[in-house]
Write a structure and sequence with these properties.
The complex is a heterodimer of chains A (446) and B (233). Chain A has helices at 50-59, 76-93, 135-147, 166-174, 192-201, 230-240, 249-260, 277-289, 299-308, 328-336, 358-361, 364-368, 380-392, 401-417, 435-445, and strands at 21-22, 25-26, 40-43, 64-67, 96-98, 104-107, 112-115, 125-132, 152-157, 181-186, 206-210, 270-274, 319-320, 343-349, 372-377, 397-398, 423-425, 431-433. Chain A is an alpha/beta fold and 446 residues long. The longest helix of chain A has 18 residues, at 76-93. Chain B is an alpha+beta fold. Chain B is globular and about 45 Å long. The chains are: A alpha/beta (446), B alpha+beta (233).
């Protein structure tokens, strides 16, 4: 309630036996007694009361409710029957339910903070929608996003998914203007195919983390059923339906930052520019394992770099300037403009005398139509301002060489998974069918 | 004339497990190549069938009651390399005697022997997953299946390109492309078989379908075995 009162609209505490005030608002005996329209009910009542509460909410014209209580389908037959009763009441009155057994959701941009966890008031607004099966993992991601200075467009813990599940959440956030990428934490769902279809339908990039790798079949038997583990099916299914998968919560947010703040990658070829050899070596090694390729730069690009910095440390791939220098941004630009390169990844230790090459990289990604990722290191007090400026200039930033390489790997995999898409990217990040162009090409051949 | 629908035949018998012969007919109806075979009621018919199919042949127990043929009756269930009428008669009689001892209905399946060194053994399977529905599996087959677990999965149905990508996902893909001077396998035919198995599981009430091994040769694929389990009616 303390979190919810930050919301700019009216918030009514409802309690039939309550009197007086809660956080400055008068108790109302029932939702049906509230004057004025209500969009959402936050239900902090014991589970057995929920069917009646949902029915009352529906009668009062409230279209959505969060059920925080546990003791439903996750807790045996009796709980499952209770959940069925809640779903039935919701269906009768057309109420969308979040939960039961959830810690809620956040929309930081509107200060809609419907979680009882402490600290959620400080989660900043960003452009990644976090959709987690577990409320706990939802909060893990939300708080990480704050430490990473990225924030979230929304954080949702789905809980038991009584009538709002992954598919509904993906469809919703695909249509949400504040959301440019959607990350999923999945433990398991009884309608995996519907989840995958929602992912395929989404124009907004989706990245997934399927927890529980050890849940596999008995490989002592060599038949198809025994060879088909849950994790394998999710991983294969996500890939088939255009969703790259990762194996850690921080990887999810890194991948979302890369995909949600960049033009769609056209292919898996990564161009690496580094100011220090060692991090560059880590990156080039890791990118290939993560699914990216490292093509040779064109002769034109090599000549161009040699012109910028005669005798550069190593003007093949990765382009390594040896140390931060004023010309670093021009080298990045040369690699970004190389036709063989689909994704640019830059590493540079922060040098206070030079700063990061914000001016050179301003709008570069948009202009060349390729993601440009940047990893740096230094003391936060000095680096943060430039890092924020790079983010604002359309360049997602990363904390370590490994995480930047892994994010580039996700971009490469995403490009491969979407190589056959019947759509071409547009500058606003949306997609338009390219069929018309293809038909015209076909006609010109006749 | 045309074979009876193997699925309908099993259903009519109240069975959920198809015999190998029924499974292969089902595969053949979907365009997947199988060995030439005959199902024989007695040893005389088996000898005639062997002559018709051409020596050498393989003799297998054919019974809905036996799904793991090679483990059955101390190895009587599958006998390979039969190159004479006498050898065929002996193998057939052993199968029928073992079945009689166990009180199960059985016939003898006589099929052409296909040399395994003509290609690469793969497994192509289908399963109906409770969450994802029809799924098709591609993997390295034969005895390597359980040792290497080299498999890839797709949600079915899929098209030929997706089937090719499932094959390419295998660590064993270079074997199929003709590593170390081997003749490359007909990967198009293999992809077509993967598509067909995905379609079969999608279109019929099949709980699980195993083609292991499917021999991928330079001139097509041959299903050497087939196990089909239907969903409960």
């Amino acid at each position: 309630m303390a979190n919810a009162t930050a919301f700019e609209g009216p918030v009514y505490p409802v309690n039939p036996s309550g009197s007086g005030e809660l956080f400055g608002s008068e108790f109302v005996p029932s939702v049906t007694d509230i004057d004025g329209p209500v969009d959402l009910a936050l239900c902090c009542v014991p589970g057995p009361a929920m069917p009646e509460v949902v029915a009352e909410c529906g009668a009062a014209g409230i279209g959505a409710a969060v059920i925080y209580a546990s003791g439903f389908a996750e807790a045996g037959d009796e709980g499952a029957a209770l959940q069925d009763a809640v779903v039935e009441a919701a269906a009768d009155h057309d109420v969308s339910l979040l939960g039961p057994n959830t810690s809620g959701f956040l929309v930081p941009a509107t200060d809609l903070r419907c979680s009882f966890a402490s600290g959620v008031g400080e989660v900043p607004a960003g452009n990644t929608a976090v959709v987690a099966q577990s409320g706990g993992v939802a909060h893990v991601l939300a708080f990480q996003s704050r430490r990473q200075r990225r924030g979230v467009s929304a954080m949702v813990g789905l809980g038991n998914r009584a009538n709002v599940g992954f598919a509904e959440a993906i469809e919703y956030f695909d249509g949400d203007d504040r959301t440019d990428s959607i990350v999923l934490h999945v433990e398991g769902t009884d309608d995996g195919r519907r989840l995958l279809e929602a992912c395929r339908e989404s124009d907004t990039p989706v990245i997934a983390y399927k927890a529980g790798r050890s849940d596999v079949g008995d490989f002592a038997e060599s038949h198809t059923g025994a060879l088909t583990g849950d994790h394998e099916l999710y991983t294969a299914g996500f890939a088939q339906y255009g969703v790259p998968t990762v194996d850690a919560t921080d990887d999810l947010l890194d991948a979302a930052a890369a995909l949600g703040n960049s033009p769609p990658p056209a292919g898996p070829d990564v161009g690496v520019v580094t100011a220090q050899a060692g991090p560059g070596i880590i990156i080039t090694d890791r990118i290939q394992r993560a699914g990216g390729r490292l093509p040779d730069l064109t002769a034109e690009t090599r000549a161009r770099i040699d012109g910028i910095l005669p005798g550069i440390t190593y003007d093949d791939h990765p382009a390594d300037t040896g140390l931060p220098m004023p010309e670093f941004g021009a080298v990045v630009t040369a690699v970004a403009e190389d036709d063989r390169i689909d994704v640019v990844l830059v590493y540079e230790l922060f040098e206070a005398a030079l700063g990061l090459p914000v001016d050179d990289l301003e709008g570069l990604a948009e202009r060349v139509g390729k993601p440009v990722l940047f990893a740096t290191e230094g003391i936060d007090e000095e680096v943060d301002a430039d890092r924020d400026a790079l983010e604002a200039a359309g360049v997602p930033t990363f904390e370590t060489p490994e995480r930047a390489a892994d994010a580039a790997g996700v971009l490469a995999r995403y490009a491969r998974l979407h190589a056959d898409d019947p759509a071409t990217p547009t500058t606003d990040g949306g997609r338009v069918p390219s069929g018309a162009a293809r038909v015209q090409e076909g006609r010109s051949d006749e | 004339m045309s074979e009876p629908d193997p699925v309908a035949a099993a259903r009519a018998d109240g069975r959920t497990t198809l015999t190998e012969a029924e499974g292969k007919r089902l595969l053949a109806s979907a365009g997947v190549g199988t060995t030439t075979f005959r199902v024989c009621a007695d040893a005389d018919a088996a000898v005639d069938a062997a002559a018709a199919v051409g020596f050498p042949v393989v003799a297998k127990v054919s019974s809905p009651a036996v799904t793991h043929k090679s483990d059955w009756a101390d190895g009587a269930g599958v006998v390979v390399g039969l190159d004479s009428p006498g050898a065929v008669r002996e193998a057939a009689e052993r199968i029928l005697d073992a079945a009689a001892e166990r009180g199960i209905p059985a016939a003898v399946l006589i099929e052409e022997a296909v040399p395994l060194d003509r290609g690469t053994e793969v497994i192509v399977g289908g399963v109906r997953d409770p969450s994802f529905g029809p799924v098709v599996l591609t993997g390295l087959g034969g005895v390597f299946t359980e040792i290497f677990e080299d498999t890839s999965h797709r949600i079915a149905p899929i098209d030929r390109a997706e089937a090719r990508s499932a094959i390419e996902d295998l660590r064993a893909a270079p074997l199929l492309r003709g590593a170390r001077g081997r003749d490359p396998a007909d990967v198009d035919a293999l992809a077509a078989a993967v598509v067909a198995v995905g379609d079969l599981v999608t279109d019929h009430p099949i709980a699980e379908l195993d083609v292991n091994p499917l021999l991928a040769t330079p001139d097509g694929v041959v299903a050497l075995d087939a196990l089909v389990v239907l969903e409960d009616a």
